[in-house]
């Protein structure tokens, strides 16, 4: 199927030379250029950042339990990029909640 689509797309491909393009001989207003610019500012009216963690751990029992060691060796996150989160649990009947809120501004 992919080969068929590639073949059809190659058959439908055409080229246009610069001398074949017809452009109007009219100056473009600055306002039009500002709206077409790639680095356009976007104004947000509302931004909401929230994280609700509502876990409950009730009525748990732990008898004759053995907990192991948590080991995070050096270099465990050496090649990571972006946002990393590490959670370790050494106990029993533990409720672990994690949340990450990211506020990103692109200018």
Automatic annotation (TrEMBL):
Q: Which residues form the signal peptide?
A: 1-18
Query: Which UniProt keyword terms apply here?
Result: Signal
Query: What is the name listed in the Swiss-Prot or TrEMBL entry for this protein?
Result: Carbon storage regulator
